[in-house]
Specification:
Layout: E1 11-13, E2 28-31, H1 42-52, E3 56-61, E4 68-69, E5 75-81, E6 83-88, E7 94-99, E8 103-106, E9 112-117, E10 122-127, E11 136-137, H2 140-149, H3 168-171
Antiparallel strand pairs: 1-2, 2-8, 3-10, 4-11, 5-8, 5-10, 6-7, 6-9
Protein name: Cupin domain-containing protein
InterPro entries: RmlC-like_jellyroll, RmlC_Cupin_sf, UCP019307_cupin, YjiB-like
Organism: Bradyrhizobium canariense
Length: 173
Amino acid sequence: MSVVRDNAEPLAIVFEDDGLVPNNILPFLVYQAAVKLDSRQPEETIERLFEANGWGGTWRNGVFDYLHYHATVHEVLGVARGSARVRFGGDHGQELEIKAGDVAILPAGTGHQRIKASADFCVIGAYPPGAKMEVTRATPENHAKALKTIPNVARPPADPVTGKNGALMPLWR
């Protein structure tokens, strides 16, 4: 039985480089209410989905309350419990409400920062194979370095939600 809702299609947003947060020419993707969660073990439902689609290094936590990005790896965030308002794309980006069952896929360089969250907010993070995750703060020095590393980050082998034939594949071609 699939844990992904039928016709799950992501919202795609391209954030501009703002001089501090590089963002990416690849679109940021958000699947809204895409995952059918097991009410007793929602974290495991998302972890198994990501791992089945080749995304690993999973962790459980929240989203940092300071602006940051990852210049060496793409990241997926699946909301297992609660909800949060997160600003994606840096200070000039967009605030989105993400809730249980939603999945956000951040191409390398996409700024993100938690604005507020419910007390039970829990997100599962994961990464495509082969890359090391590093937290990067938005500074002019880090921006200059990120502009060199981001173009070299390999495309993932599959969409973390919908697999090898998922929406990410043509959108990130």
